[in-house]
Design goal:
The chain is an alpha+beta fold and 159 residues long. Helices cover 18% and strands 31% of the residues. It has two helices and nine strands; from the N terminus they run H-E-H-E-E-E-E-E-E-E-E. It has a four-stranded antiparallel sheet with strand order 2-1-6-7, covered by helices on one side. A hairpin with a 3-residue loop joins strand 3 and strand 4. The N and C termini lie far apart (61 Å).
Length: 159
């Protein structure tokens, strides 16, 4: 080791760290599931690879997002179920309800903007990394009821 080069590790540290950080996402979603909803102002942007093994989303979403998509878990979600290696959630896309099943191994990003917390993961596919996109599921709708500056925002949560 006189040339200063770092030897290759026989221990897959990168994989171990990625797996541990994905477990953070699972624990957070599990807390939301057990608590029956998001506490305070917390909400999540979750980016995942749509073609990753085990991802189960409607065909129209796979066609629209052939590589990666970002969803929002805020107030318009239902039936959140967290498993040891994946989560399921109901979301609405253009007023059409959809059920998504996403393995944690497919997740490439997790952000909670309420507390400025973010995790980025290495994609586990061979086709390169894509930048996270804008969230695609229906977000709260802002409407002005009387033309004034008062805006009513629909944050209802479907059951």
């Amino acid at each position: 080791m006189t040339d200063g080069a770092v030897p290759d590790s026989l221990i897959p540290y990168d994989e171990i760290v990625q797996e541990a950080l994905r477990a953070v996402v699972g624990r957070v979603l599990g807390e939301v599931e057990r608590g029956g909803g998001l506490p305070g102002e917390h909400h999540f942007y979750i980016t995942f690879k749509t073609q990753a093994p085990g991802v189960d989303i409607p065909l129209h979403l796979t066609q629209r997002f052939p590589d990666e998509m970002t969803i929002v878990i805020q107030n318009r979600f239902w039936d959140l179920k967290v498993e040891p290696d994946a989560f399921e959630v109901g979301l609405s896309f253009n007023q059409v309800p959809a059920k998504l099943h996403v393995p944690f191994a497919a997740v490439t990003g997790f952000v909670d903007p309420a507390v400025n917390f973010a995790l980025q993961f290495q994609a586990q596919s061979e086709d390169g990394e894509a930048e996270p996109g804008e969230p695609e599921n229906d977000t709260p709708v802002a409407t002005s009821e009387d033309g004034s500056n008062v805006v009513s925002v629909d944050f209802t949560r479907k059951k």
